Amino acid sequence: MSNQKILIVEDEKNLGLTLKDYLETQNFEVNLAENVTQALSLFDSTTAIVLMDINLPDGNGIELAQALREKRKDFLLLFLSAQNDPETKYQGLEMGAQDFITKPFDLRELTIRLKKALQTHALLNQHINEIHLGKLSIRFGQFELEDANGKIINMGQKECGILELLYQKKNQVVSRDEILAQIWGDDVYPTNRTVDNYIVKLRKWIETDPTSRVSINTIRGVGYQLEIKE
Predict the structure, then answer these.
(1) Exposure string (b/e) for 200-218, b if CB count within 10 Å is 16 or more?
(2) At 1, is the pLDDT very low, low, confident or very high (cuts 50, 70, 90)?
(3) Which residues contact 192 (CB under 8 A, 6 or more apart)?
(4) Strands of 136-139's sheet in order across
(5) What does the pLDDT look like over 35-78, one tens digit per residue?
(6) For the chain, which residues make up each domain, given as ranges?
(7) The domain over range 4-116 is classified in CATH as 3.40.50.2300
(8) 128-228 fold
(9) What is the mean pLDDT of residues 16-28?
(10) Which of 119, 113, 91 is nearest to 101 (CA)?
(11) Residue 97 burial by CB count (10 A; 0-12/13-18/19+): exposed, middle or buried?
């Protein structure tokens, strides 16, 4: 995990410095911003990862993340927040965050989640960069999907991972257990219902063109199939 540049956006000074010192021991290059203005100044073409608090003194972390995504889409985004209500998490993941970590958290947990995000990002870039399915364009390296109506959707790491796995095994059935093992790994929190919820979201994005020959089918009691008709 060396030679990766991280931007921490955290208004709690002690926490920000603790994170900076710790991540530097993990061989990251770290910049620390305490507000939106500093973050916009420090974010550049070499920033690989952004760790973002949501409540900032001069703005909102989700809005700031969206502004950074408009500049570049190829960086990893992880939210760090004391807000753990489902709606806030949903907003963060909807706009393309790879993870949402609730405060307080253990530094080892942060490292594990960061490693997983980096590994998944590397695999996505290595395996598939961009695919076209009819009117759909999926750019895995940028965590981006362009639907049949031309709308750009920022995907999270989990959506990208599931979609790539289904595409790799297109027209085959992929079990929920395989999805959990491949995408979540040793994480003990997700359930089959978690996978189902992600599939609902992907299906809504994929099936925007009524004439499309691409669909995500539910195979009852087994899993899912990305069907691509010739």
Answers:
(1) ebbeebbebeeebebebee
(2) very low
(3) 176, 180
(4) 130-133, 136-139, 144-146, 152-154
(5) 999 999 999 989 989 999 999 999 999 999 989 988 887 788 99
(6) 4-116, 128-228
(7) yes
(8) Arc Repressor Mutant, subunit A (1.10.10)
(9) 93
(10) 113
(11) buried
